[in-house]
Amino acid sequence: EEPKSALPDYASWKDENAVIVHSANTLETRRDAIGSGVVTPSNHLYVRNNLPAPGNEIVADPDAWELRIEGVNTPATLTLAELKKIGIESVTAVLQCSGNGRQFFTHGPGGTQWGVGAAGCVVWTGVPLRDVVAKLGGVKDGMEYITGTGGETLPAGLDPKTIMVERSIPTRALDQAILAWELNDEALPLTHGGPLRLVIPGYYGVNNVKYVKQVAFTESQTDAKIQASGYRIRDVGVKGAPDQPSMWEMPVKSWVTTPLEKAGSGRNMIHGVAFGGNNPLDKVEVSIDGGSNWLEARLLGPDMGRFAWRPFVLAIDLAPGEYRIVSRASDSEGNAQPQERTENERGYGNASWSDHGLSLTVS
Ligand code: MSS
To answer: H-type helices in the chain, by residue range?
Structure first.
């Protein structure tokens, strides 16, 4: 049993038995708390804040929240009440931190030592960004990025660019971007970015800007540090720079969730989750011998679309012994989850099937 640390105030409604408290700003879902359903319960969902969350007063009157929209032909400031009249859509999507799986890197990258649980699959409801843009006369010519700015109050005395949460993503994501005010059918809580969040299904967590106060279509990427040098893939020992790949679209990934560590002999149900990232999922295979032999798993639950994960199960008889259980997913484009992680300085984007396996003792 790992010792439990207290939940921070802004997330006191989380189920303390379902999460690992890494710090006041980082809560991870326990591997066995992901469950066998498609949707991760909100009170099990991981939390990652780069800055302390704003005060609860920002969700007191959600409809009054204001969003500035720039880089369109008719820039405007719209309240959430006004956005709600433009359109509405629900999308089920995986939310996953760029650093999920960092714990398995051996060069000791700094940052939260996430295992498998900086991820969840949730239902977002809001207005498609493209509908808002259409209402404002379309995107101005020559704009290549969607730049979202978080609504945190920045501590005084520091250069805002070094701490603000402002992310740019390519305008190709306009097809799928939504401005969400509901999470799993409830008003979006402050903890997950209420009253309004820019959600980019298929993209890593960091691009899903919480308490979004501005969305700007821009010619270039923001020079905020979190974009310019942060969240970039580079070799171990190399500093972050704007020409390195940014943590945008997620690749295909899966992992087993239960049984953990010990099981009884005979019939066992091996559970896990699999998703295609920015592409639809094709299939997932499970191996009980560390990857020598594979069996196709059965996908569970309804297919909630291209951006959602599918829980999977493999029913199998196990004799007493030691097993290494791993899973390997592939997407509709024929990309398979790799055996090994791509080594990189910050420990981002770990999709290795080998790293994400479980060792099981059956007696
Ligand atoms: N937003 C804002 N505003 N702030 C912050 O801090 N963070 C990021 C996103 N967004 C932030 C934001 C991150 S980094 C992540 S993951 C996410 O978010 C998380 O979410 P949740 O809801 O879970 O907490 Mo990594 O890639």
So the answer is: 80-84, 129-135, 225-228
Query: Would you give the distance in Å from CA 25 to the centre of its chain?
Result: 15
Q: Considering only CA atoms, which of 258, 260, 297 is closest in space to residue 281? A: 297
Residue of the nearest CA to atom 10 in ligand 1? 209
Instruction: Please work out whether the CB of residue 227 comes within 6 Å of at least one atom of ligand 1.
Output: no
Cα(281)–Cα(310) distance, rounded to whole angstroms? 8
Side by side, the strands of the sheet bearing 281-287 are 262-263, 358-362, 321-331, 281-287, 295-296
- pLDDT per position as a tens digit, 233-278: 999 999 999 999 999 999 999 999 999 999 999 999 999 999 999 9
Query: Residue 267's CB: how many other CB atoms inside 10 A?
Result: 9
Closest ligand 1 atom number to CA of residue 49: 6
Q: 205 C-alpha to center of ligand 1: Å?
A: 6
- Would you say the CB of residue 165 lies under 6 angstroms from ligand 1? yes
Atom 25 in ligand 1: which residue has the minimum CA distance?
A: 97
- CB of 51 sitting under 6 A from ligand 1: yes
Whole-number Å distance, alpha carbon 95 to ligand 1 midpoint, is 9
pLDDT in tens, 310-343: 999 999 999 999 999 999 999 999 999 999 999 9
Which DSSP category does 13 fall into?
T
Ligand 1 contact, 180 CB (< 6 A): no
- Reported ipTM: the value is 1.00
- Contact present, 44 and 27 (Cβ < 8 Å): no
**Domains along the sequence of the chain with CATH:** 9-228 (3.90.420.10), 253-362 (2.60.40.650)
